[in-house]
Amino acid sequence: MMSYIARRLLQMIPLLFGISIVLFAVIQAAPGGPEAALLESDRFIDPEVIEAYRERLGVDQPIPVQYVRWIISAVRGDLGVSFSTTRPVTEMITERLPATLELMGAAFLLAAVLAFGLGVLSAVRQYSWFDHLGTGVSFVGIAMPVFWFALILQLVFGVWLGWLPVAGTETVGASSLGDHLRHLILPAFVLSFRYVAGWSRYLRSSMLDTLRLDFVRTARAKGLSEGVVVWGHALRNALIPVVSVMALNLAGLFSGAVITETIFAWPGIGRMFVQAMFSRDYPLLMGILMLGSTMVVIFNLLADVVYGLLDPRVRLDEA
Predict the structure, then answer these.
(1) Is residue 84 part of a domain?
(2) What are the backbone dihedrals phi and psi of residue 88, each rounded to the nearest 5 degrees, phi first?
(3) 58/144 same-domain check
(4) Rounded-to-integer distance, Cα 118 and Cα 238, Å
(5) How many domains, the chain?
(6) Do residues 106 and 99 lie in contact, with contact meaning Cβ atoms separated by under 8 Å?
(7) 3-class secondary structure for 185-242?
(8) What is the per-residue pLDDT across 198-228, written as a single tens digit (0 to 9) for each?
């Protein structure tokens, strides 16, 4: 197992290097530039001022030169300086990362609990009213746009009922753990809802296949209770394909946080990414995109490891 993980980690280096080249080229090919904000103003800007501005930011150099300078600094842990704030990008990402990880963690736990309950009970009670209800909820979760769902929840629970706050992480003058958790409920639920829909369908299908296997009939023949058979025996085997999908979807939580954090004014990396796009902050965009790419690669490795741990037939050391 350890040799497999070490080998995969080494393979990440050329992969991330290739990803960085593509991302850097795409960002540089985008229309406008850091000086676009000056050009969009109504005031006349002397071309010499614009050129001096570009030179100060280092974007007057050829793109290959800019990339070489960036990758050399990135290897040392320096992702450059933000155009809009003149602060180190690494520092800005480090400040915002805990809030995003908190939201991702809460959404993942909530999605896992709801999906497990919905998927298992739908399989055990196949074609019952609960199964049809779960199918309907899943269709809604998959089809409904995230931003629309977030706005509906803000309107219902924040404006009409007044039960939950609709923005930020705390109430001014009333900061507490309970208040922070109340602010976390809506964004975490919005971010998790799509994954509840997908994971519950995967688990339902896998559980239906598992419940028909011989070892489940044997467990029932031994007199074991239905709860022990379902939750203690069938669920472990049914989780093998589902957990792999869940691990792969962890990266999707990071990208989904962009919309969720923006709507709920959650001070994480997703909201900062949107602000960086509008300000054409190339170094900050590059840093956030590389962080997201690294997460995708790591979560893919995590999915393979979890699959190997759940299924003893898979020998990762020989892969």
Answers:
(1) no
(2) -60, 135
(3) no
(4) 14
(5) 2
(6) no
(7) HHHHHHHHHHHHHHHHHHHHHHHHHHHCCHHHHHHHHCCCCHHHHHHHHHHHHHHHHH
(8) 888 888 998 888 888 888 888 888 888 888 8
- Between CA 9 and CA 25 the distance in angstroms is 25
* Judgement on whether residues 64 and 104 belong to the same structural domain of the protein: no
Q: Is residue 89 part of a domain?
A: no
Cβ–Cβ under 8 Å, residues 196 and 115: yes
Decide if 186 is inside a domain: yes
Domain span at 258:
95-318
Q: Are residues 64 and 99 in the same domain?
A: no
When computed from its CA atoms, the radius of gyration of the chain, rounded to whole angstroms, is 24
Rounded CA gap, 174 and 182, in Å?
12
Query: pTM here?
Result: 0.84
What is the tens place of the pLDDT at every residue in 43-78?
556 667 667 767 777 777 888 888 998 899 898 888
User: Do residues 154 and 299 share a domain?
Assistant: yes
Distances (CA, A) of 117 to 3, 107, 112, 190: 36, 15, 8, 18
**φ and ψ of 80, to 5 deg:** 95, -170
